[in-house]
Amino acid sequence: MGPDQLGAAHFHTASKPLKEIDIRLPENLVKGAVKLDPNLKKYLGDELPAECNTNVTWAYVTFDKQNEVLTDLITRLSIELKLPQSERNTYALKFEDHGNDGVFLTKENRSLVPQGFILILTASPERYAHYFLSRLRNPSIHNGDLRVTLSELMALCGDISFATQFMRIGGYDYIFEVIEKGLCADSVSSQSRFLQALLILMDHHGLMYWSQVSDEFVTKIAENITGRAKQEDNTLLVSSLNIIDLILNAKNEEKMNLVFREVPFESLIRHLEKSDERVILNVLTLMNSLYNKARDHVKSDIVEHLHVTPFRCAIEKSVLRKGKQLDVGIEQQLVIVQRIQLNKLSQKAMRIPTEAEIERVFQLKLLNGESSKGIYANVVTSEEKRAEFLNFTEAVIQTPPGSLALETILLFVTHYSDSITKISVENSMRSDNNLWSLLLVSVHLVQMLIDILHVINEPEEGDRLMVLLFKSDRPFLDLFAVLVKLFHRTWREMHASEEDIKKVLAVVRKQIDVCLLEKPDTIEKLEELLAAHSYPHMKKIWEKERSAKEAEELQSDAVK
Fold first, then answer.
1. What Pfam families does its record include (predicted)?
2. pTM of the predicted model, to two decimals?
3. Per-residue pLDDT tens digits for 382-398
4. Is residue 405 part of a domain?
5. Cα dihedral angle (200, 206, 208, 212), rounded to 10 degrees?
6. How confident is the model at residue 44 (pLDDT cuts 50, 70, 90)?
C-alpha cells in the first residue's frame, strides 16, 4: 500500500450528519444586571443602618421571566448586595430604561424584561408611598422643598403599584384635603403640581373615580376657572379645566349639575384670549362637553354665547390670529363648535313655517312691487302676485330650507336694505325687462348655502374647519348676502331671463365652489375671489377643462 493509499485510509465520511447544537438560552431566560439604588436610604430611613454601606452595588443575574417568583428573586438579590433582611415588604425592582422609566417590576410587566437588562433594586412601592406622604404632611417643609417633592411624586404617579399603595395609606385623601382646605393657597406652583399629580393618579382604572369627589373639591377647582380664586396661572388653569371636564363626563348627574352651577359657560370665554395653546385647547374641550351634557334650554343659551361678539373676537384675535399655525387638537375642537352652530341652523331648516310667518315675509314692502323701491320696476298683476305667493309658499315649506329661509330673508331686509335697493334700481334700468324674483331666488340661495356648509348632514369624510365662519357675527346671513350679490351680477353677465334661473344658480354654485377651494379665511377675501371669477372668466376655465379632457381622450385613443 503506497503512502497515498495509507493516508486515504484514515479519512472517511461520517455515517450520520452532525447535529447543530443550539447554545441560545430559552426565551423565558434573560441575563442582565441589577444595580443598587443609591437613594435607597431616603425611602427606608432607619431600616437601613448607616453602617450598612456596602461596596457591592452591582449583581449579575439570570432571570426566568416565566417561572421565577419575584419575591424570591428580590430576596436573593438583596442578600447578594448585603442588604439587611426583613420579613416586611422592604425591597422591589424597577426598570431603568427610558421606555419603562420609574415602573416597578411586577408579575404583569415581567415579560417586558429584555436580554441584557439593567434593573434597579430599590425600596418597595409601599415604602415610596409612606416616604412621599410623610414629606407632604410635614408642616415645616418649605415651598421650594415641597415643589421638589411634588415633582418627584408626579414622576411616580403613573405607576400602578405605587398608586395602589399611595391610595391605601391615604395619599389620595390627603391631596383632596389640601385642595379643599386651601392648605397651599399661598403657592400657585405647588397647587398646580398637586393637581397634576392628582390627574395622573386618578387615571388609573379601578382605584378611584371622578364621580366620587366631594362637592367642596368641585367648588375649589371651579374657582380657579371663574376667577373667584383671585389668582391666574396657566398651568393651574389647564389642570383645573381638565379636572372639571373629567367630572362633567363622570356619569354622575349631581356632579354634572354642580359643574353647570359653578362653571357658567360664559366664564370660559375670556380664557380664549390667552396665548397659551394648552389653555385654549382645554377651554374649547370643556365648552363642547358643557354643550353635550346640557339640557335643551341650556344648549340654546350656549349657542347664543357662541354667536356673541366676545366669543367671536376671542377666536379671531387669539385662536385664529394671522400667521399662527393652528394646533391640530384646537382645530378639532373648533370643528365641533362649528358643527354645534350648524346644528342650530339645521333645526330651523327642518322646521315648517306657519302660514302667518310666510305671509309676513311675502308682504314685506321692500321685497314686492308695492314699494317704489321694490324688486320690480313694472306693475305686477294680482294673478302674478298670487302665483308668486304660491310658488314661494311651496318652496319654503320644504325642509330644508324651511323656516331658515324666512329668517334669513327677514335678517337680509333688516341688515342689507341698501343691497336690496341697489338691485331694485339696477333692475328698473334694464331695457330688456328681464327681472328676477328676490323672494324665490333667496329660497334657492338659502338651500344652496345649506348644501355648501353641510348644515343638515355632516359629510362622510367629516367636517372641515371653515375659518371664515368664526370671523363674522352673522356668518350665514353674511354669506347669503354674498350669494345674492353674486347671483345678481351673474344674471346680468349671462343676460338671463326668467326661464334661466336654474342655469344662473348652477353657475353661481360653480363660482362659489371654486373660490372656497382657495380656503378664504374671511368673507371679504371670499368676495375678492368671487370678483375675479366672473361668468366670462368661468367660461374660460370651462373651455380649458374641455380642451384638456379632449386632449386626454385623444391621447387615450392613440394608445389604444
1. ELMO_ARM (PF11841), ELMO_CED12 (PF04727)
2. 0.89
3. 888 889 899 999 999 99
4. yes
5. 130
6. very high
